[in-house]
From TrEMBL:
Record key words, sorted: Amino-acid biosynthesis, NAD, Oxidoreductase, Serine biosynthesis
Leader peptide range in chain numbering: none
Ranges for domain ACT: 329-399
Protein known as: D-3-phosphoglycerate dehydrogenase
Functional note: Catalyzes the reversible oxidation of 3-phospho-D-glycerate to 3-phosphonooxypyruvate, the first step of the phosphorylated L-serine biosynthesis pathway. Also catalyzes the reversible oxidation of 2-hydroxyglutarate to 2-oxoglutarate.
Listed transmembrane segments: none
Gene3D superfamilies: 3.30.70.260, NAD(P)-binding Rossmann-like Domain
Family: Belongs to the D-isomer specific 2-hydroxyacid dehydrogenase family.
Length: 399
């Protein structure tokens, strides 16, 4: 099998695939258009990060593609529905870089509160500006976290440990950690927070979540941090609130439009503003996080193509390892239709095949069955399943 890894995915991922006999091609940047279509010829496994967009058109051009690995948290760069319809599994790394993002946010809170961006710039210019003007401790201040998932909760724990009070808002029902307090609305959080940090996902409903109205509701001289998705924030509204002095500072790691490759020009209305930290989408870009992501996602892809396992797939029903393990395994992806499992087992019984392990899961319009047997399935059984109207694909493995 051939693997294509884009966007500087950690070398550990390529090593994992090569150890198992895969042919691996790596490229430093993202691809698009005809270049991406051409690169996917003959590729069974594709690894991307956040800058490569996988549309239904791309998937149609990738005739051999079995699975996509998003070596990051987000998956909004992939048309998950189109991938599922074509039986292409998609995996991501929902946990591996949470610590790195949280540490970046904590560091930004300190830098913004002490206005260190201005201090270091003046020192580089040869100006000795030893003044406490505008610099504050964050102890006892209130951090408002919008989005209380894996990153938001870990940020909550760390922030409280270093002296911040924590409030949070999430549309889902989330358990508060430590002394954190759930706020009844986003407006209530904004009115109380000295620092607002955004940690929402890339679903379309979050686009434009923070605009002029939300910035106006924040406390005077509060600070804003976005390390989630660029489309969440109206950059022009943020600029106006920095220039007017309503906000004391901001840190932004993600942008609505980002350069595609290393060294490309970056443009934003936030450039050149005092006490504004701009970083190039590096929230999860630590050696530790990238190594962990490389290991985690490559293992998920290998388990899928070698064992048929789909735990933590974001678009196919999740079916894990069977116990006891079978000598022969059949993986069957199908449209979710009543009676499929009974039909499979009737075919096996008529053929005299003994089932030693079986697991079924359904999600949306799809169902997925792993069946372990003590012998290879007869060809007439396999042919009958392949011909069935509900079949998406059927694959066999010898374990």
């Amino acid at each position: 099998m051939k693997v294509l890894l884009l966007e500087n995915i950690h070398p550990g991922a390529a090593e994992a695939f090569r150890r198992d006999g895969f042919e691996v091609e790596t490229r430093p940047g993202s691809l698009g258009g005809d270049e991406l279509h051409d690169a996917l010829a003959g590729v069974q496994l594709l690894g991307i990060r956040s800058n490569t967009t996988i549309t239904a058109e791309v998937l149609d051009a990738a005739k051999d593609l079995l699975a996509v690995g998003c070596f990051c948290i987000g998956t909004n760069q992939v048309d998950l529905t189109a991938a599922a319809e074509r039986g292409i599994a998609v995996f991501n790394a929902p946990y591996s870089n949470t610590r790195s993002v949280v540490e970046l946010v904590i560091g930004e809170i300190v830098v913004l509160a002490r206005r260190l961006t201005e201090k270091t710039q003046r020192m580089h210019e040869g100006v000795w500006d030893k003044s406490a003007k505008g610099a504050h401790e964050f102890r006892g201040r209130t951090l408002g976290i919008v989005g209380y998932g894996n990153i938001g909760t870990q940020l909550s724990n760390m922030a409280e440990a270093i002296g911040l009070q924590v409030v949070f808002y999430d549309t889902a029902d989330r358990l508060a950690h430590g002394n954190a307090r759930r706020m009844p609305s986003l407006d209530a959080l904004l009115a109380e927070s000295d620092v607002v940090s955004i940690h929402v996902d890339g679903r379309p409903g979050n686009a434009g979540l923070f605009g002029a109205e939300q910035f106006a509701r924040m406390k005077p001289r509060s600070m804003f941090i976005n390390a989630s998705r660029g489309m969440v924030t109206d950059e022009h509204a943020l600029r106006e609130n920095i220039l007017s002095g309503h906000l004391a500072g901001a840190a932004v790691d993600v942008f609505p439009v980002e350069p595609k490759a290393q060294g490309d020009e970056f443009d934003s209305p936030l450039r050149g503003l005092d006490n504004v930290i701009l970083t190039p989408h590096i929230g999860g870009s630590t050696q530790e996080a990238q190594e962990g992501i490389g290991t985690f996602v490559s293992r998920k892809l290998l388990d899928f193509v070698q064992l048929g396992a789909t735990p933590l797939s974001v678009n196919l029903p999740n079916v894990g390892a069977l116990n006891p393990p079978g000598v022969f395994r059949t993986a069957y992806l199908h449209t979710s239709t009543p009676g499929v499992l009974a039909d499979i087992n009737r075919l096996l019984a008529d053929a005299g095949v003994n089932v030693v392990g079986q697991s079924l899961s359904t999600g949306g319009d799809l169902g997925y069955v792993l069946t372990d047997t003590d012998q290879v399935l007869p060809e007439d059984v396999l042919s009958a399943l392949r011909r069935a109207a509900q079949t998406v694909w059927l694959r066999s493995y010898r374990l």
